[in-house]
Amino acid sequence: MAKELKELTSRAKDYSQWYQDLVIKADLAENSAVRGCMVIKPYGFAIWEKMQRQLDDMFKETGHVNAYFPLFIPKSYLSREADHVEGFAKECAVVTHYRLKNDPEGNGLIVDPEAKLEEELVVRPTSETIIWSTYKNWIQSYRDLPILVNQWANVVRWEMRTRLFLRTTEFLWQEGHTAHATREEAIAETEQMINVYAEFAEKYMAMPVVTGFKSESERFAGAEETYTIEALMQDGKALQSGTSHFLGQNFAKAFDVQFTDQNGKLEYVWATSWGVSTRLMGALIMSHSDDNGLVLPPKLAPYQVVIVPIYRNEEQLQKVNEKVKGITERLKALGISVKYDNADNKKPGWKFSEYELKGVPVRLAIGARDLENNTVEVARRDTLTKETLPMDGIENHIKQLLDEIQENIYKKAVDFRESQTREVNSYDEFKEEIEKGGFLLCHWDGTPETEALIKEETKATIRCIPLEGDKTPGKCMVTGKPSAQRVLFARAY
Q: Which of 4, 75, 165, 397 would bridge 281 by S-S if both were Cys, CB 3.0 to 4.6 A apart?
């Protein structure tokens, strides 16, 4: 394990390679036999499950229910909303036939030319079209509204350059799709859900985010407004970590979804959609981890505490086992997840390195001397420090320690973001500062032409127009034209 750790590229040397090394060596995921797709391994999926479970609880607390819609979407459905099809056309995988057959010339299986579909099916890149074709059957009256549905699913968006968790051809996500009687209700839903995402990112992922809305050119295809949460990774690049879209009546009109209001008048339904994906796994890794491996916030760690016995013979092991049994029961009673690793195929030093690499928040080591002294060694992953403490009442200390680690990881991320966020007033200064990475708060004249120029010349994009912060008007750093407020620029994943 020590050798494997040495092979973990340092962040300073090559951040991209460090990330790739860490995802693989920490047993989170690996590339699959299908180009651009990934296998999420059990340890990685355990983290995703904790994310999923918490988000699902938060969705249900806000009145949403889960459903499931088809993986395949008729091609004609995608064509009905002009902006939507334009936004996704280049990323779609298409099913053209429904059967294979043996090659008469003996070259294995071939596509049966007689089995061509009457209409091609698109493998879902997102589900607005198939869901709104369904909602047409569900909605007739104002009494049928609102519909507050979420779907946990996989989607496919064809990618040429892939990176585990951050950008893969197939990925896992949730997508909420809601229908409302009024514009105001739909906007309130859009804002509520981006705030749910922000709360999850900060409270559970320990990852500070900037909440705002996208510029017109960065909006979701088919949306009237897109809200986003943007996080800053340790290499100074931004990562879009969740979006919520106000879709207006665009999809309702495309699929003729109307309802009779309380006055008997026929109206088009108002819509939202919102989602987060396994990209959050990449965000979690890059926000907190270090050159020794993963650093996981306790609220999302597959197990929050690992206990490693140190013994010379079977008799000592049995005594440690007995003591650990009580500690484990008391920790679990406090809602703390624990793993006791008394497997005899690895030495304690190997186990210490392994759990450090995997980011387990707290490690306990108990040996024969600890039994004599009624003590236990407690190591914390976030600071890489350890101390020897009395065994009595250790479970209460660990509960407090886990809260402290969660807060410390968040504070460290906040301090980093603040140190990397700067106000810039001139375009020359912007060009210099963007090379250093981080968030730049700048005035922009609001035009897509200026936005496109900045992107072309610097590779930086407007991450969001912040909802909070300095709203003082000024002058665009490029054109000198009036600017309503500073916007957030960064280079991004």
A: 165
